[in-house]
Design a protein that fits this description.
The chain is built from nine helices and 14 strands. The chain is of the alpha/beta class. It has two domains: 2-168, Stage V sporulation protein AD (Peroxisomal Thiolase, Chain A, domain 1, 3-Layer(aba) Sandwich); 176-330, 3-Layer(aba) Sandwich (Peroxisomal Thiolase, Chain A, domain 1). The strands form three sheets. Strands 1-9-14-13-10-11 form a six-stranded mixed beta sheet, sandwiched between helices. The radius of gyration is 18 Å and the shape is globular. The two termini are 30 Å apart.
């Protein structure tokens, strides 16, 4: 299902990143980077992630010169059980809250919901936020980092950070032109260390349906980015979408997970980045600034998520996936 929006715009973004992200080729676009203390002076890793998300919201309000009273709703989600990082981060904001979950596709899900509410004039301003923390994710979905288990080359590295974006009805230089809600896909993969293979089919289906619904060719866009397929999943997508949908992804396509880290220097990050904040660290920083400078004018962003829990995995269920797409365009004056 694809929606076209007439009155949804981006007013500002904010990005807070962790220690491993400071070596990113795109680190100059982050607003704040924490050093090597993964607890960020908090008592637990979960509280540390909560702090990242909370600070990204506060920073966004400051950058946008907005008060809490001017925000109609915050739409947020994360990877922790029952999206508790988002709930605790927003506890004292005194702003209405909608919690959402599409794993690493959460950022686009929240933007689509906010844009629809703004476009129908139910609200005027919405903040969409997400977070992830490498160590909280490892603890919840695989093994505590202290376990010391070796990982295969296909394993991606959960990014640490908090990201927020302000969507508004007020006309700005960048509009959210359309959004496509993804379908749940199942390729039969059970390997929690090969998320690129899990999510690539969902990305292919969403891209194909987005183009079909709007009657567009892939060449309509100056840049196409997927969320966090990583270096291996990125290649699986290119093969999959060519074979099943006859769509060629050329040099205008890349994956945020493959872009986020300096893989030549950061050898411990084998297949690239992942996590709900992985795509926003690229999309809300580099992409947003390139659109403002009109280096790109039409961009398709496709966030990808693996929908699973360790409990279902231990019961030998397949890992499901989903992808949501948004189209951003420069407003011509």
């Amino acid at each position: 299902m694809t929606f076209k929006f007439k009155n949804a715009y981006i007013e500002n973004t904010s990005l807070i990143a962790g220690y491993y992200e400071k070596l990113s080729p795109y680190a100059k676009y982050f607003d704040k980077i924490y050093e090597k203390d993964f607890y960020f002076k908090e008592k637990s890793l979960e509280q540390a992630e909560t702090k990242l998300l909370s600070e990204s919201i506060d920073l966004l309000l400051k950058k946008s010169k907005k008060t809490k009273d001017e925000i109609d709703v915050i739409i947020a989600g994360d990877l922790l059980n029952q999206i508790t990082s988002s709930s605790y981060a927003i506890l004292n904001k005194n702003i209405p809250f909608l919690g959402v979950y599409s794993a690493c596709a959460t950022s686009n899900e929240s933007i689509i919901i906010a844009s629809a509410m703004i476009d129908t004039k139910h609200i005027g301003n919405a903040i969409c936020s997400t977070s992830s923390h490498n160590l909280t994710s490892e603890k919840q979905f695989r093994n505590p980092i202290e376990y010391g288990g070796l990982k295969p080359k296909t394993a991606t590295f959960t990014a640490t950070g908090g990201a927020s974006i302000l969507i508004t009805s007020k006309k700005t230089d960048i509009k959210i032109e359309s959004g496509t809600i993804g379908k749940i896909m199942d390729l039969g993969v059970k390997d929690a260390n090969n998320m690129g293979a899990v999510m690539a089919p969902a990305a292919a289906d969403t891209i194909a349906r987005h183009l079909f619904d709007l009657g567009r060719d892939i060449n309509y866009y100056d840049l196409i980015l997927t969320g966090d397929l990583g270096i291996f999943g990125k290649e699986i997508l290119k093969e999959f979408i060519k074979k099943d949908y006859n769509i060629i992804l050329d040099s205008r396509y890349d994956d945020c997970g493959a872009m986020l880290y300096n893989l030549e220097k950061q050898k411990e990050i084998t297949a690239g980045g992942s996590g709900p904040v992985c795509a926003p660290l690229i999309n809300y920083g580099f992409v947003y600034q390139m659109l403002k400078k009109k280096h790109f004018k039409k961009v398709l962003l496709v966030t990808t998520g693996a929908l699973f829990s360790p409990t279902f995995l231990y019961q030998k269920n397949n890992i499901l996936s989903i992808a949501h797409a948004i189209s951003l365009e420069v407003v011509e004056k």
